[in-house]
Specification:
There is one protein chain. Helix content is about 25%, strand content about 25%. The protein is elongated. A hairpin with a 2-residue loop joins strand 17 and strand 18. With about 475 residues, it is of the alpha/beta class. The N and C termini lie far apart (about 60 Å). Helix 5 packs across helix 6, helix 6 packs parallel to helix 11 and helix 8 packs parallel to helix 9. It folds into three domains: about 80 residues, Roll (SH3 type barrels), CATH 2.30.30.520; about 210 residues, 3-Layer(aba) Sandwich (Rossmann fold), CATH 3.40.50.1170; about 110 residues, Rossmann fold, CATH 3.40.50. It binds aspartic acid. Aspartic acid binds next to loops.
């Protein structure tokens, strides 16, 4: 039976870990230096979540990361001091409400940020409840009162447009309560689809709706979950923003986060933690520690007193396809979608927005059936230019709609939203080509794309 004192001193730790911690006189909230097979590290001993495996001590490093350090017979621990314990538990509403702090609602949808590593299989599985995340990141309690709710527990590749609509409805419901901002913990793979979809689905956004993810699960060494969450909750609490934004690590040194507009952001690296980049625009701002700097003068400001006026569109169409064009592509691919009842198609075309001529008969079929076909560019940077070459002009004659500089996945979510809420082909065409939520910009910086070639080292956070 676990003694009551042990519950307090070793909350969440299992027998082998407790034995080794006791051997070195270590308890929760002690500052320790630990020598393990991974080298020597210093940090503060944190409570462990109930799912965490035995044989590790979880410590918070000076840079804010939580790491699990393996404990074994070679481990040596030196106690350096003690810090005041933070009152945390795994339950929701873990702190009494602090009237002086803002209130933020943290919605969990799954993904790595809400995952832990399953040490038996090595797989990352969606398991944490937001309340547990809070336990792993006790700093959040100093930033705001946090309400948590698990909406989904899905890796983001499994989320659908219907899920985006449900999320939008949930946000509108929450906006009727006394909250200052909303954070959505989401898988990074399709995070920019969700941020774009919410930007279209929500009307009169007047508080920050911040999507955040992480590339490494929160119980792994080097997880980015803690810092990203701290940044996101800080933005939701106090940023002067009334838009859907994405907040993720900005630099490889993991010292600041960028704030990206929900319709102009993309995951640019499959594993790096500073993977999210604004495309075609500079980020809206950055956050370092708790200081927010704004780079853009075109941010919709917070208007908290009107948050109850937030609404959402009623419907979303799921029968939309996003097709990447490639040399040798034939019309049969489009025929397949038309025969399967798809209501709208987005192409990521080559160059200025081109498709091979072999597509023309199927495109004519789509046009005759009033199926909107929207063109975007594979290059990501730049605009469709469908008056330049013969093929661009021919495609327009076949009804292909130039999507300007909308990112392909953003155009996809816009098509889902437009088809769900408008009926007339002409109206749909009109909304698709009109800037609704910052997805189409009047210009792009000339050198932005060169950053990825190493020509420009970085965008200075001072810009
Ligand atoms: N597959 C995961 C997801 O998108 C990856 C992540 O969260 O980073 O849900």
């Amino acid at each position: 039976m676990v003694e009551e004192q042990d519950m307090k001193d070793y909350s969440g730790y299992k027998p082998n870990s407790v034995a080794i911690m006791k051997k070195f006189g270590v308890k929760l909230w002690y500052k320790i230096e630990i020598l393990s097979s991974k080298g020597t590290v210093q940090g503060v001993v944190l409570p462990r979540n109930k799912f965490a495996p035995d044989g590790f001590v979880e410590i918070k490093l000076k840079n804010g990361y939580n790491i699990g350090v393996p404990l074994d017979k070679n481990t040596k621990i030196k106690v350096i001091g003690e810090v005041p314990p933070m009152k945390v538990s795994f339950d929701q509403h873990i702190q009494p409400k602090n009237k002086n702090l803002p209130t933020v609602c943290l919605l969990g949808t799954g993904g790595t940020i809400a995952s832990r590593l399953d040490y038996t299989t090595g797989a990352v599985i969606p398991a944490f409840e937001p309340g547990e995340l809070f336990t792993a990141v006790p700093e959040l309690a100093k930033i705001s009162n946090i309400e948590t709710e698990v909406v989904y527990q899905l890796l983001s590749e499994n989320l659908t447009p219907q899920n985006w609509l449900e999320l939008a409805k949930k946000i509108v419901e929450l906006a009727k309560t006394n909250i200052d901002g909303i954070v959505i913990a989401h898988g990074t793979d399709t995070l920019s689809y969700a941020s774009a979809a919410l930007s279209f689905l929500l009307k009169n956004v007047s508080i920050p709706i911040v999507l955040v993810g992480s590339q490494r699960s929160s119980d792994r060494p080097s997880s980015d979950a803690a810092l990203n969450l701290i940044h996101a909750v800080t933005i939701a609490s106090k940023a002067n923003i009334g838009e859907v934004v994405v907040c993720m690590m900005g630099s490889s040194a993991h010292d600041y986060g960028f704030i990206h507009r929900g319709t102009r952001v993309r995951k640019m690296h499959s594993s790096a933690r500073h993977t999210f980049r604004s495309i075609g625009i500079t980020p809206l701002g950055m956050i370092r520690d708790d200081e927010i700097k704004y780079f853009s003068t075109e941010i919709k400001p917070r208007d908290s007193k009107n948050r109850k006026k937030m609404e959402c569109w009623s419907s979303i169409e799921e029968k939309v396809a996003l097709i990447y064009s490639y040399p040798g592509m034939k019309g049969d691919i489009l025929d397949f979608y038309l025969n399967s009842g798809y209501k709208g198609i987005v192409f990521a075309g080559s160059g200025l927005g081109h498709l091979p001529k072999t597509m023309y008969p199927a495109l004519k079929r789509a046009y005759d059936a009033k199926i909107p076909i929207l063109m975007t560019v594979q290059t990501l940077w730049g605009y469709t230019g469908m008056d330049v070459y013969e093929s661009g002009r021919e495609l327009q004659d076949l009804g292909v709609i130039p999507g300007k500089n909308m990112l392909p996945e953003v155009a996809f979510t816009k098509m889902c939203w437009a088809l769900g809420n408008f009926n007339e082909y002409e109206k749909i065409r009109e909304v698709l080509t009109t800037n609704i939520a910052g997805e189409i910009t009047s210009g792009e910086s000339m050198n932005g794309f060169q950053i990825f070639q190493g020509v420009e080292h970085t965008i200075s956070p001072k810009e």
